[in-house]
Amino acid sequence: MDASQERVFHYHADANALGGVLTHPYKTVITTAATSSLSNAGGYNSSPTVPFHLDHVLRCKAAYTHTTGGAEDDQWTSLTTAVVEDVNLLEVVTADKVVAQISSRHPKNGHVPSISFVGTQFVNLRINGEIVEPILDVHPFPAPPAPKKATGNSKSAAANRLAEIRQFSPYHHSDVRKLVKKQSSKLVGPSHDPEVLKRRYGWLASDDEIESRGHLLCSLVTDYRKGDPKNTYGHVIHVPGFGYVFLAEVIFDGKAYHLTMIRAEMGCASSGTVSMASARTNGSGIP
Question: Which of 143, 232, 247, 265 has the fewest Cβ atoms within 10 Å of its own Cβ atom?
Fold first, then answer.
């Protein structure tokens, strides 16, 4: 094979099950548990299945991750998964199982991947003892059209590539921007009290603000079958006396997709930040 005539793909995928920082009643780093990272050339990597226990603060029966990537006839695919089972954070956030999963398909003739979050789930999630059943959209980003065969000189090919990315990449896609703005309105609407959410998410209503930051943020949570609407603001749940719980957040910067299923910012007898079930993937076809 003449390598100069072939497109190649550089994989990038990683996952972790638990991690964070505790600032009170004592300061400690919650060592990241169950990590795995994919080789640049693809293949497979996984973490051992491990339990986790940090005093009275955080524990889980099992935590594990795996990443995989490989080539098919007309595309490069990757799958990234992070799982925690029987997790308990300060007796406030508990779940039988939490799964973050991202699959990507990058066309060999094209530059915009298809992204799916199928398999992502909460099982028996409870917050402050109450069952919370988020409804998840596991296909929040529109699938790009089938790529056209490249034609013309290198200059026109570069122009076509840029046009494809600007039209169909989730970062630029008009439907995704509408979704982000709709979710922002749930977080910072006039009926909402927490000023912290207005400071945190108000910028998502502005295309200029998104462009200035170079990334956007949304959530897979579209609604709830069960939950406490009084203290629920989009994908954020405020637990008085504990802090804030953020569910199924996705950060996208035009390249990488980063999903965190649970992130808790605590400001109570125990203070700090904890994340559970995080997965990230991107990758690049060259040239």
Answer: 143
